[in-house]
């Protein structure tokens, strides 16, 4: 299958280029598979009936792994499909691989082969791969989110900016308060995170321009990075959901933090944290204050 990676990715180095190649390959698989989606495409549910796995997920992960290993055979790879369901298994797998990367002094790739699985199953064209590379010390240094339906390749490398099809992107600096903000959030499958999301949406809906739920964390993070959204928050996500998107936002001039970190102003977002808040930086504290008052952020 020919890759349609833009010839101009911006000043992106080898790690970002491999991330883009891998993400585009998986994105093309998703796009082709979406034309023939049916009830038989779902192989099983994971943590609960709302958390789906399809036949396409492992195919995409295998292709991403193949492309990474062609260039970096000794690098480590943590893919979603190799991990048991549930937040505990996700957190345990991440800790294991981060320790292994540091011990072996190898880079670690974190892969979500198909983010937005429910969208995919229902033929909603918002499902896509997310590929990120971490240094042996655990810093996200490169990442790509590729939207095959729109042929949009979001790629970033630490210190080199964030790029969309070779054009530099930045967060929306024109949105100066929540009242002007197009905000995104998730519709999570877990009971606790669903409860917190309902608290959040009830508090936020009267205070923002509108709220959107697109069903893909990777897509929503990429859209914050390119200025289509002013912010995005979600109560419980895994590392493969946020690693690439978090770097995109940081390199695009935004603020990527977590709900438990006062102010969310870490120099490098800690991908161990599962409760995320991502904004243009301007509305960050205002959004946190609303979520705190709603009881989503524990005081």
Automatic annotation (TrEMBL):
InterPro entries: IMPase, Inositol_monoP_metal-BS, Inositol_monophosphatase-like, Inositol_monophosphatase_CS. Its cofactor is Mg(2+). One of its GO terms (molecular function) is inositol monophosphate 1-phosphatase activity. Pathway: Polyol metabolism; myo-inositol biosynthesis; myo-inositol from D-glucose 6-phosphate: step 2/2. The keyword Hydrolase applies. Pfam families: Inositol_P. GO terms for biological process: inositol metabolic process; phosphatidylinositol phosphate biosynthetic process; signal transduction. Mg(2+) binds at residues 80, 112, 114-115, 241. Coiled coil: none annotated. Its EC number is 3.1.3.25. Gene3D superfamilies: 3.40.190.80, Fructose-1,6-Bisphosphatase, subunit A, domain 1. It is an enzyme of class 3 (hydrolase). Keywords: Hydrolase, Magnesium, Metal-binding. It catalyses: a myo-inositol phosphate + H2O = myo-inositol + phosphate. PROSITE patterns: IMP_1, IMP_2. Belongs to the inositol monophosphatase superfamily. This is Inositol-1-monophosphatase. It comes from Triparma columacea.
């Amino acid at each position: 299958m020919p890759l349609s990676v833009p010839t101009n990715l911006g000043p992106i180095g080898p790690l970002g280029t491999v991330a883009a190649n891998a993400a585009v390959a998986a994105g093309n698989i998703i796009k082709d598979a979406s034309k023939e989606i049916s009830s038989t495409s779902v192989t099983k549910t994971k943590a609960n009936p709302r958390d789906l796995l399809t036949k396409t997920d492992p195919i995409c992960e295998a292709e991403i792994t193949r492309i990474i290993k062609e260039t970096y055979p000794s690098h480590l790879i943590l893919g979603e499909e190799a991990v048991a369901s549930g937040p505990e298994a996700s957190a345990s797998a991440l800790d294991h691989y981060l320790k292994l990367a540091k011990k072996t002094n190898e880079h670690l790739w974190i892969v979500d082969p198909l983010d937005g699985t429910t969208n995919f199953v229902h033929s909603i064209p918002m499902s896509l791969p997310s590929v990120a590379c971490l240094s042996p010390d655990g810093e996200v240094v490169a990442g790509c989110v590729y939207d095959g339906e729109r042929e949009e390749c979001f790629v970033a490398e630490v210190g080199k900016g964030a790029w969309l099809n070779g054009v530099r992107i930045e967060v929306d600096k024109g949105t100066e308060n929540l009242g002007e903000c197009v905000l995104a959030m998730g519709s999570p499958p877990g009971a606790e995170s669903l409860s917190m999301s309902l608290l959040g949406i009830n508090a936020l809906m009267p205070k923002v321009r509108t709220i959107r739920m697109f069903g893909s964390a990777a897509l929503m993070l990429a859209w914050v990075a390119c200025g289509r959204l002013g912010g995005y928050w979600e109560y419980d996500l895994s590392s493969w959901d946020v690693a690439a998107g978090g770097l995109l936002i940081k390199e695009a001039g935004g603020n990527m933090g977590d709900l438990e970190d006062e102010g969310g102003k870490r120099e490098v977002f800690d991908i161990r944290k599962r409760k995320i808040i991502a904004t243009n930086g301007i509305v960050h504290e205002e959004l946190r204050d609303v979520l705190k008052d709603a009881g989503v952020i524990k005081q």
